[in-house]
Amino acid sequence: MPNKLARAVRVSMHNDNALKIGLFGANCSSGRAVTLLEERWSGAWKDCLALARTADDVGIDFMLPIGRWKGYGGDTDYQGATLETVTWASGLLASTKRITVFGTVHAPLFNPLIAAKEFVTADQIGEGRFGLNIVCGWNEGEFDMFGVEQRDHDRRYDYAHEWIDIVKRAWSIDGNWDYKGEFFNLKGVRMNPKPFGGSHPITMNAGASANGRTFALKNCDAFFTSATRTDPERTAERVRDIKSEAKSYGREIDVYTVGVVTCRPTQKEAEEYHHYATVECADWKAVRDILALKNISPATVGQETYEAQRRAYANGMGGLPIVGDPDHVADVLAGLTAAGLSGIGISFVNYGRELPFFADEVLPRLQRKGLRAARNGRI
Ligand SMILES: Cc1cc2nc3c(=O)[nH]c(=O)nc-3n(C[C@H](O)[C@H](O)[C@H](O)COP(=O)(O)O)c2cc1C
């Protein structure tokens, strides 16, 4: 029998860091950088494996993959080569010791019992370090290739409620059980083994709509939302609202955000590289195609908003741009904790090349600010 593993330990990602830092999007070609640059991320397995091992060594808390099934087009076919996230997580969990690795799973595409068993398998491999990001579907075109019709927006989250309910039952109920809901009618269900250590994996969601947010607050441990660099008070207010809405459902939730980091020895170098990667060498055709998928065009939103959206998507598909020298990057990250955020999923143009500098220069600054334990400071 494995030792007992408390849920609180999983939710805190097995450590005391006040600001959790994860790597977001490394299972996809180009990661989150819509750029033509030669050194853009490959997303290949051997690069992911080397990255995860380095991340594990330097004390990064989590890896969060993107559930994406086909490329966005453009000159690079942005995110055109992606590794399936639960198998990816299993491989990484087998090769690491401390880091939490998420799978990002489209509830409408996976039978919940098969999914629950995959999660248990990954969690057993990682001895309690698997995490689940539940997504309901973002890009309509992706569902067509499966022959699966996307439900309308509200129904998506109704369905996801039943789906996660079934997964959690499979993780916890001993013996046989039935389930009769609006979307599922299951008979004589029995599932063993259970997740590692007698507790459930950490779960997260990043719904942006009112329904998506309510789903996350009622069902998940962590909620990802956007943060604004220009107005920390607005971010703090948003975090307070989210936490108080969760309380109204009798729940506690950790709030996270996503960011795109360019960190160089000097501010000038960081800004120049950032401009080079995301303006001069942006894959503008891919940006145009991404925006078209979301029905964002000068005709639908007006030229000014369209230009702002183009810039945001070229800069890593949205997310907080954090560009500067190590002092600046550490200060921005510290500001997120001050706003009440529990952590951030970050991306780099080339995760493997850029992580060591970030780990050597930014993480110690965060330690000195009292936001992170020394490397590998586990509970
Ligand atoms: C951090 C983060 C990770 C996400 N990961 C994925 C993903 O991998 N696959 C996907 O289809 N959608 C992903 N999404 C989209 C959300 O799940 C959600 O569908 C989107 O924010 C729109 O919100 P809504 O569904 O409430 O309209 C992600 C969003 C964020 C902010």
**Termini gap:** 21 Å
Percent of sequence in beta strands:
15-25%
Poorly predicted tracts of residues: none
Question: What is bound: which ligands?
Answer: flavin mononucleotide
Report the average pLDDT across residues: 94
Number of helices: 14
What general form does the structure show?
globular
Widest sheet: strand order? 1-2-3-4-7-8-9-11
The H/E string reads: HEHEHEHEHHEEEHEHEHHHHEHEH
Alpha carbon gyration radius = 20 Å
The CATH top-level class label? Alpha Beta
What is the CATH topology classification name? TIM Barrel
At CATH's second level, what is the architecture? Alpha-Beta Barrel
Q: Please estimate the helix content.
A: 40-55%
Largest sheet: 8 strands, parallel, barrel
Number of self-contained structural domains:
1
Q: Name the CATH homologous superfamily.
A: Luciferase-like domain
Task: Provide a short characterization of the protein structure.
With 379 residues, this protein is α/β, with parallel strands linked by helices. It has 14 helices and eleven strands.
